[in-house]
Amino acid sequence: MEIILFVYGLSFFILGVLVLFVRTTDSAIFFARKIWLLGIFAILHAFVEWIFLYMYLYPQYEPLLSPLKFTLLLFSYLFLFEFSRFIVRESFKKQSSKLHFLHTLYAAPVIYIISLSSLLSLILLHPSLDDAIAAIRYTYGFFGSLFLGVGLYYYGESLKKSEYVERLKIYFKIPGVAFICYALLAGIAVSPTHYFPGNIINTVWFLDTFGIPVQFFRALCALVITICSIKALQIFSDETHLKMLQSLRQIKRFSSDVSHELKTPLTAMKGELEVALKEPRTNEEYQSILYSNLEEVDTLQSIVKNLLMLTYLEKESLKSKFTQQNVDDVLLKAIEDLIVIGSQKNIIFEIRELENLIVIGDEILLKTVFSNLIENAIKYSPYHTTIFISLTALNHMAHFRIEDEGNGIDEEKLHLIFERFYRADDSRSKQIKGFGLGLSIVQQIVDVHDGTITVKNRHPQGLEINVMLPLAF
Question: What is the rounded distance in angstroms from the CA atom of residue 309 to the CA atom of residue 154?
Answer without folding.
Answer: 35
